[in-house]
Amino acid sequence: MKVIIGVRFKKPGKVYFFDPGNLHIATKTKVIVETALGEELGEVVAKKKLLPNTELNTPLKKVIRIANYKDIKHYNENKKKEEEAFKICEEKIKKLKLDMHLTDVEYSFDNSKLLFYFTADGRIDFRELVKELAAIFKTRIELRQIGVRDEVRRIGGNGICGRELCCCSFLNNFEAVSIKMAKEQNMSLNPSKISGNCGRLMCCLKYEQNVYEDKLSHLPKIGAIVKTEDGEGVVDSIETLKEIVKVKLKDDNDETYYKKYNAKDLKIIDNSVSEVMDDEEKENMVELQKLEELEKQDRETENDDIF
Question: Are 281 and 127 in contact (CB under 8 A)?
């Protein structure tokens, strides 16, 4: 077991674990920690606790000290410098006619590195831009291409639910989201209804997916033939979370009627169903597949955090 605290370097952003040593540190305290980039200033967001060694992917780096007045003043000065660096970089991008969009600038705490974050549709040759920026700022320059999800997280906003975007409030990591999740949750496959502000599939599709997968593993599919207390019928729709199945049946006069049953009261006769889509659904599926492909490209071009 290891004693750890959780530190965040920007909000929203990932929470990283550090070894607090003998320091007694309250939440919301600014601390100087050792990272792969050198010393950095972050904020404690999770107080001391014990964590099993198996949950630690890498050796813990240490908290060097609680940030003092001088540290915080230096950090704030860097923030002002970043604003100026942003303007200069935008001018250079325009001058060099690069097809990229600058989203953020960040100085390392010790000013040994200046990082520029940008989005672009593909790979960008920014070697000339790096040369010009290095000549101006006299420090190591690094450009990082990020995905549109990260860009929206930095901008902020509200989702279609009316609440602040998950990525701007509590979501630390972006996980892969797929069309399969939307289908299994019986959501509309209209791209405009299941896409977020970033133009990608909504992150919240992931939240309940494990529950849906568990329940669907023992529920019949839509179109399956099942045996009910009233005879054989065809599954018309499913209330997955309630495990209620609506079945289409025929009475003695060969008239069609519908009735709902608990899934446990049904016996599946034939669950091999071929999916049939109308023209509108096919068009929507093409658009959704494009979104999935764009998300894969985002993951390929994004740079990982190296804290």
Answer: no
Angle at 117 between CA 72 and CA 191, to 5 degrees: 120
Verify that 158 and 205 share a domain, yes or no: yes
229: number of Cβ within 10 Å: 8
| Tens of pLDDT, residues 233-269 | 999 999 999 999 999 999 989 899 999 999 999 999 9
Q: Long-range contact list for 231-239, CB < 8 A, 24+ apart?
A: 232/269, 233/259, 237/186, 238/186, 238/263
Same domain, 133 and 158: no
The CA-atom distances, in angstroms, between 181 and each of 122, 168, 209 are 27, 22, 6
Same domain, 62 and 77: no
User: In this structure, how many other beta carbons lie within 10 angstroms of the beta carbon of residue 204?
Assistant: 17
Domain count for the chain: 4
> How far is residue 102's CA from residue 6's CA, in Å, rounded to a whole number?
29
The token duo for 196 is 């977020």
| Domain-embedded: residue 297 | yes
**pLDDT tens string 63-115:** 999 999 999 999 999 999 999 999 999 999 999 999 999 988 999 999 999 99
Q: Which tokens belong to 69?
A: 């007045």
Do 292 and 201 share a domain, yes or no?
A: yes
- The model carries a pTM of 0.64
pLDDT in tens, 148-193: 888 887 778 888 888 888 888 777 677 888 888 988 898 888 888 8
Is residue 103 within 8 Å of 148, Cβ to Cβ?
A: no
Range of the domain at 31: 2-67
- Give the whole-angstrom CA distance, residue 150 versus residue 279: 34
- Name the β-bridge partners of 40: 33
Same domain, 12 and 116: no
Contacts of residue 194, defined as CB under 8 A and 6 or more positions apart, other chains included, come to: 182, 187, 188, 201, 202, 205, 288
Q: Both 287 and 169 in a single domain?
A: yes
